[in-house]
Amino acid sequence: MKSSKNHSQTSSNELYAKREKIYPRITFGFFSRLKALSGVILLGIYYLSPWLQWGDRQAILFDLPARQFHIFGLTFWPQDFIYLSFLLIVAAVTLFFFTTLAGRLWCGFACPQTIWTDAFLWMERLVEGDRPKQIKLDQAPLSFRKFRIKATKHLLWIAFALFTGFTFVGYFTPIHDLIPAMMAFNLSGWETFWLFFYSFATYGLAGWMREQVCTYMCPYARFQSAMFDKDTLIIAYDEDRGEPRGPRKKGADYKKQNMGACINCTMCVQVCPAGIDIRKGLQYQCISCSACIDACDEIMDRMGYPRGLVRYTTENTLKGDISSHILRPRVFVYGGILLAIFIGIGVSIAGRSLVELDVIRDRNSLFRETNAGLIENIYRLKIMNKDNQPHSYDVMATGIEGLQLIKDQEIEVAGGSIMTLPVRLAADPQNLLKRSITITFQLTARDNPELTITEEARFLALRR
Q1: 82 and 50, same structural domain?
Q2: Is residue 1 helix, strand or coil?
Q3: Residues 154 and 292 both lie in one domain
Q4: In the 3-class helix/strand/coil scheme, how is 165-225 assigned residue by residue?
Q5: pLDDT digits (tens, 9 = 90+) for 218-265
């Protein structure tokens, strides 16, 4: 029983190893600058977009109560839900395309988890210092100085996370209305919930969990290998050139010493935000941030060795296959599919109707006979103006000879609004050859004849 208990404890320890904090060293180089630029651009888009105005409204606003989704000059309605499906398809195919071409390029340079984690790491370095200072601070006993530094860092993190949550809510509630409501503690329940939930998620995922999200929570880390092949660009260590590795003096002829180019400085490990050793080969924890490339190139420059010991390459190239091709059929297939989807979406949006018409029959009566001896049917026209400009419309009905349309008011619909209009259709019984006849309503904007739509309905009468 005792042996079984010890074995259970050992298994538990193996399965649930305690996380060791990673202190990634800052590095400078081409890929580091490219990643920083990507982060600034993406964070700038996220934080600045809600503040942009388009006419008299917010440029990007997902107005859920009004069921209107404004993206600059375009307004989408629930009836346009198909475009969301297209957007998800585009995201999936784009991920397949870039993964096939260059591995986890998305994870390293554009994933929100990576971008926000880098922002939190920058704030951490700003307050605590670089890697050696952070390690020394964490190993030091608790003191007022340590408490002050840690408290400052977390206050900065929390403020940034709250601003992130506030910005997120600003995409759904006009951000200029959100500020006075928040200052007056007059936020709705849902606004309050999402502000704090998104803030907490940002603080927890980017501040505390960091690489654990990429390693354990993100499913992409597990199925990425299904999209890799031996011609996929990956970040790899050139073992043939680097081994056997070991320290040496600058200027020493390492080849005469039967050594490789790697001086075993471990800089590639120290700069890795996932804490892996790229020299052990391709690992699912690697997010392809390229920090190890910049770090290794810097060391190679100092030693006077050629760059590229750690580089973007392919498995076939590392094996010496000169026939390796980065641009291969599957890349063109994914690229062609992606281009076709983009063209399809563009054509569909450009050609979509800016007016919707629903015809609803009056359920209280099938038909009635007027004092003039005509057969009358009653309908409700639900008119949706999907344009941002107001329009006046004319409506007509066809399908029965001498059909008369009677309405009590003019059809004037504001931009992005819906109008319900009751109308009556009257026909001479002599022209009603069947009990149920197909008729067509046609709605046309007075200021734009091309803005027109038709909708079929049924006209009911006595059986002849």
Answers
A1: yes
A2: coil
A3: yes
A4: HHHHHHCCCCHHHHHHHHHCCCCCHHHHHHHHHHHHHHHHHHHHHCHHHHHHHCCHHHHHH
A5: 888 777 777 888 888 999 999 999 999 999 988 888 888 899 999 999
